[in-house]
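#struct-help
A.M.: can someone run this one for me? Single chain, 293 residues.
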Amino acid sequence: MPREPIDLDRWRAAGRIAAGARELGLRLTVPGARRRDVAEAIEEYVRGQGAQPAFPANLSRNVEAAHYTPSIDDEAVFAPGDLVKVDVGAHLDGAIADTADTVEVGGTHRHENLVRAAHDALRDGIAQVRPGVRVDEVSRAIAQAIRARGLRPIEDLTGHSIERYLLHAGKSIPNVPGASDATLIEGEVIAIEPFATNGVGHIANGPFGNIARFRADPGPSDPVLAGLFGRFRTLPFAMRWATTPEEQAALRRARRWLQTYPVFLERGHGLVAQAEHTVLVGPGRAEILSVVP
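D.P.: on it. Structure tokens below:
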């Protein structure tokens, strides 16, 4: 039976907002720009459009594949040649859009093949999306596009299904075939996100990426913590979003309630490019939600 997301118009609106935030981030990622300023501008754009960030703006550079957002005191700036993954999310009452692209800072064109590989893989993966298709067919198209450019897909990063207030809702969309026996169902919302690398095609955990999420509702016994859960639910949030000493202290007390995210590093120290869209499995094909109108 087809599955219709709750209030599809809301999902489409979240997709347009996320796409606008992605494009803003790409424009702002220039030599000398401070990483924290770019992240905060992306997040403020989302809020200014009437949505909330579905997760902190991820600005992972070079061998960092994913899960880096600046800390509150991050003073790092972008340098020419940095390969930056601008990965953003927006939600409207839990209807989530997740989208990403890669920019080579300063337009130095040293890593064009990597960026094009991620774009090719995203295009070819989405072309396979329709009800009843095996996820493995999507994965095969992604891997073939990346390998055609002499590069490797990152095997242990995947796309994913999305449900209301659930960014990773249980179904994975691997970037290599042979890892899933699932099929796509009409009405599902999924994120397809190829990662291409000139490294070994696997990740390792790096340092803390300044991102956390609540595993479950901590309950009302700690009012400050309960207020934070009310804001973020179980979606990822940036530690810098806890702006008062009381909120910061509450998060330190809440370790058992929190999942923290390490930065994912390419295990062979290869450079990484990413591209991503949120799509609806429509009645005959994919409807890309994360597009600028």
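A.M.: thanks! The chain is about 30% helix and 30% strand.
D.P.: also worth noting: The chain has a mean pLDDT of 95.
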